[in-house]
Write a structure and sequence with these properties.
This protein is of the alpha/beta class. The protein folds into 2 domains: about 5-35 and about 280-420, Aspartate Aminotransferase, domain 1 (Alpha-Beta Complex), CATH 3.90.1150; about 40-275 and about 425-430, Type I PLP-dependent aspartate aminotransferase-like (Major domain) (Aspartate Aminotransferase, domain 2). It is built from 15 helices and 17 strands. The protein has a 7-stranded mixed beta sheet with strand order 4-10-9-8-7-5-6, sandwiched between helices. The chain has a 4-stranded antiparallel beta sheet with strand order 11-12-17-14. It is globular, with a radius of gyration of 22 Å.
């Protein structure tokens, strides 16, 4: 079933209008957030207007709202093949990650060791850095130049003091997919809790919690065409859980606070749509992604794919364009109404390369000039052809004015050296484990 939003592409574009040119934008930043599906908006509207009762109330007016929350919970559970009682609604993926890891530590106060990776989302990495300040030890697993983990390194670092292992299902920058079930088997051999950030994977990959080793799994609504401000945490039956938010009895006592009913209903509808479109992700979306990727790699010299060629999300490609800045690329793409993401971020005038690409050991010529394109089912072949039309010209223009002359510059060390305090995960920390 095609969304009504998609049917309006010829009028205003599926994704909105570019404010600089008053023309439809081409939105290729879906790993950052997705547009809300029209079906989701339609499902939510009655619970913003007509059915405003509290779902925890005893009266019929609130009870009918409670039934819709239950239906949404059923839909989200079906997306990952879990029992509805294992689903807790949260405000976002970051809350889910924090709640899961904090709960695991609270349930095991005698264990003070955490294992994660160098390429996790900041919701996990920054929490782990804070936990180090609280006296916990953290091991950050490394990745190779394709962004893949070494499972022998994982085995070697587990010990009797390890409370939890936290490894994402798919990376938000490269799209790399990790062998979660193989990892889970290794973790479970030692009787350790296993947390998975599946924010990027849910709705794009089939997930089956019924036959899984995962104890905690996190999802976020705005990655699957639901609104921002709603997420879900899967907690496997039998796993001890101490709530992150304490107060009322909502979510069976596992997450206090009056339920965000419109958001929950929206996420439930988005989960239903994601199930219906799951095959489309691995077929038509992947086909568009491959067309974009192959077109860029074949027409633009000195660029390469960052990440694994095949073990990645069907909607994601991360490409490094040597000798130019990603921010300049994004600015010129933006003028054409094309939205993507950079592999580095510019804050307060100081360039900070992607911690994911840095962990992969990529040279600075690629770190600073890497872009992530992430597609959705709303993208079209015409949009991809437009990007392929303008991108080579933009790269050629920027390289013509670039101060970087090429490989000789790289060999002679013109690139700045990143100091250890700039790294989110340092080699010194790894050596301390």
């Amino acid at each position: 079933m095609k969304s009504k939003v998609g049917s309006r592409k010829s009028e205003v574009g599926a994704h909105g209008v570019c404010p600089t040119q008053k023309s439809p934008i081409i939105y290729l930043d879906n790993n950052a957030t997705t547009q809300v599906a029209e079906e989701v908006i339609e499902a939510m509207l009655p619970y913003l207007t007509q059915y405003y009762g509290n779902p925890s109330s005893m009266h019929t007016f609130g009870g009918q709202v409670g039934r819709q929350v239950k239906q949404a919970r059923d839909n989200v559970a079906a997306l990952i093949n879990a029992d509805p009682t294992e689903i807790v609604f949260t405000s976002c993926g970051s809350e889910g990650d924090n709640a899961a890891i904090r709960a695991a530590l609270a349930a095991q106060p005698d264990k003070r060791h955490i294992v994660t990776t160098q390429i996790e989302h900041p919701a996990v990495l920054n929490l782990c850095k804070k936990l180090e300040q609280e006296g916990y030890s953290v091991t950050y697993l490394s990745v190779d130049n394709k962004g893949q983990l070494n499972l022998n390194e994982l085995r070697a670092t587990l010990n009797d003091n390890t409370a939890i292992v936290s490894i994402m299902c798919a990376n938000n920058e490269t799209g790399n997919i990790f062998p979660i079930e193989r990892i889970g088997q290794i973790v479970k051999e030692r009787g350790i809790l296993f947390h998975v950030d599946a924010v990027q994977a849910a709705g794009k990959l089939p997930l089956n919690m019924k036959d899984s080793t995962v104890d905690f799994l996190v999802m976020s609504g705005h990655k699957i065409h639901a609104p921002k401000g709603i997420g879900a945490l899967y907690i496997r039956k039998g796993v001890r859980f101490r709530p992150f938010l304490v107060g009322g009895h909502q979510e069976r006592g596992r997450r206090a606070g009056t339920e965000n009913v419109p958001g929950i209903v929206g996420m439930g509808k988005a989960a239903e749509l994601a199930i219906a479109h799951l095959n489309e992700e691995s077929t038509s979306v992947r086909t568009l992604r491959d067309r974009l990727e192959q077109g860029l790699l074949s027409t633009i010299p000195d660029c390469q794919l960052n990440g694994h060629h095949s073990k990645r999300l069907p909607n994601t490609t991360n490409i490094g364009f040597k000798y130019i800045e990603g921010e300049a690329l994004l600015l010129m793409l933006d003028r054409e109404g094309i939205c993507a993401s950079s592999g580095s971020a510019c804050t307060s005038g100081s360039l900070e390369p992607s911690h994911v690409l840095r962990a992969m050991g990529l040279p600075y010529t690629l770190l600073h000039g890497s872009l992530r394109f992430s597609l959705s089912r709303y993208n079209t072949g015409a949009e991809i052809e437009r990007v392929l039309e303008v991108m080579p010209k933009i790269v050629e223009r920027l390289r013509a004015i670039s101060p970087f002359k090429g490989e000789e510059d790289e060999k002679q060390g013109w690139l700045q050296t990143v100091t250890s305090d700039q790294l989110p995960v340092t080699n010194e920390r790894l050596a301390k484990r």
